[in-house]
Amino acid sequence: MTTAPPAAPERARPDAAAASLGAPARCRRRLLVAAAAAALARPATHACAAVRTPTAAQMRGPFYPQTSPPDDDTDLTRVRGIDRAAEGVITDLDGQVFDADGRALAGVRVEIWQVDARGCYHHVGDAGGDDPDPAFQGFGRTETDAQGRWRFRTVRPVAYPGRVPHIHFAVTPRGGATFTTQMYLAGHPGNDADFVLNGVASADARAALQVALGPAARPGATLAGRFDITLGRTPPVAS
Ligand SMILES: [Fe+2]
After folding, report:
1. Ion ligand 1 residue ranges (Cβ < 5 Å)
2. Were 224 and a residue from 73, 86, 174, 216 both cysteine, which residue would form a disulfide, CB within 3.0 to 4.6 Å?
């Protein structure tokens, strides 16, 4: 014998609620007004959550570290054991990681990697990287705080043959898949011709990958920029 599933609860009708309380007809209007006022006074749990457009995915590329580097903190301009800062324009980057409902995501691993001021990836696979700046860390990682915030100090990326300046990002939420994208410099004249950036069909999505750098607020840096990342349903792209 099969058991019928329980009937879905009917949405309560206010006038039925009033009748069920045994209220006389003349009082029902007052009850309805009170119910409406109570509903308005209730905190709207999703009022703060704005719908956000997911950040466009970009290829991971071939230069993600093959092994975890010994120095992988958030300051890529300093390498343990080297008594000088990295060459290049020191740049502070920060941002937040959100989901598509606008909720800030805590505990998300954020990793970045890029070329140094000489245009070299610190990676054995970079054929053009035979003279890297030893004072540049090349890669860094952190985790978002309770407000989904992350921060790195690095150098302004430079162009290398075939690509405009960019910084690679890998973003991994707790228990989730890694999302990769690339951040570009707003206003760079080569952006319109870069084959990776222009692999993103939407002009708005391409614009969201381009960050305007301005004067830095924190001592020790020259430039600063903000790059927010929204994780959504963008399908992963091949490396
Ligand atoms: Fe790259």
Report:
1. 61
2. 216
What pLDDT score was predicted for residue 138?
95
Question: Do 229 and 55 meet the contact criterion of CB atoms below 8 Å apart?
Answer: yes
* Residue written as token pair 């939420």: 173
How far away, in angstroms, is 236 Cα from ligand 1 center?
17
20 C-alpha vs ligand 1 centroid, how far in Å?
67
pLDDT over 60 (residue 188): yes
Distance (Å, whole) CA 194 – CA 34: 60
CA–centroid distance, residue 97 to ligand 1 (Å): 21
Question: Mean pLDDT across the stretch 185-213?
Answer: 97
- Give 137-147 pLDDT, tens digit per residue: 999 999 999 99
Instruction: For residue 121, count CB atoms less than 10 angstroms from its CB and return exposed for 0-12, middle for 13-18, buried for 19 or more.
Output: buried
pLDDT at residue number 102: 94
Ligand 1 center–CA 112 separation, angstroms: 11
Q: Supply the pTM of this predicted model.
A: 0.77
φ, ψ (nearest 5 deg) of residue 208:
-70, -15
The Cα–Cα gap between 144 and 17 comes to: 46
CB 89 within 8 Å of CB 155: yes
Distances (CA, A) of 22 to 13, 31, 34, 35: 15, 11, 16, 16
Per-residue model confidence as pLDDT tens digits over 15-24: 333 333 333 3
Examine the pLDDT at 218 and tell me if it is beyond 70.
Answer: yes
Pairing of strands 214-215, 223-226: antiparallel
